[in-house]
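Table S2 (continued). Query chain:
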Amino acid sequence: MPTRLSARRVVSVSFLVDVLDVVTNLVVMWLTGSAVIFAEMAQGIADALGSALLVVGERRARRPRDRVHPLGYAREAFFWGLLSAIAMLVVGGGLSAWRGWHQLVTRAPLENSWLAIAVLTLAIGTNGYAVSLSVRKLAEEGSLREAFRDPKRPLVKSALVRDLVGTFTSVVGLAALALYQSLGIVVFDAAGALVAAVLMAAGSLVLMSQARSLITGRALPEDDLARLRAAVLAMPEVVAVNQLSAIYSGASEVLVDADLDLVEQLDTPGIEAVLDDLEARARDAIPEVGHVRVLLNSPERG
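Corresponding output:
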């Protein structure tokens, strides 16, 4: 049986790849003057900054609830995820677009272009390895597509998007510099940086879209909600479920709202037992359930 990967390892590998990209591309950019390599460096800076913001958000989201935030701080992770995506757009996409346009206007020839090609080849390998780790981690939960659409594990999914973009931009940059090496046309170097900017902008929009959905209160998938409803209806004291909703209140936390009709003649201890049983059944159905809010009625008043 393969060893399960930790999210910390996946994010750490992604971060180390980003740092390696920044250091190597900074040196090679100075030696070659390539806009493509500048774009690679800008992406590495944006990804490292984005990873740091996500880690900060995850730690702040774990703070205990207090009077000001009675449900805790779990949703704060979504805000830091949005900042991380904005950093990718502004720092990565914005700087790459600027440098690509500058190269398109000035047409400055490159030096030691073979060195830039070698670094991009290395970047494809390192980013590809980081992508494989993120894919393995998400695939542990079953379907990769469903795991990516599920808001859980935002650090891993963000790392996957960033490393995929890094791999694609490295491939595009390698092709652009190979064409420059063959034909001596500097426009290919500028085009490579501009395409990298577009790829980074697209990746950031994917992350922004998911963050927006979560900040505004995204509901659980229908199959999860159906499993939760079945668990509630299985309680002998529940006559009817008038309303049942569940939203993500944090990166790995779910808030449940229920409006239930109960059997008649339940005393206070009986109602307390029903509430305890309800919370236990909800967590059995969906382990991420953190809070359950319930409105109880009797059939004659419902």
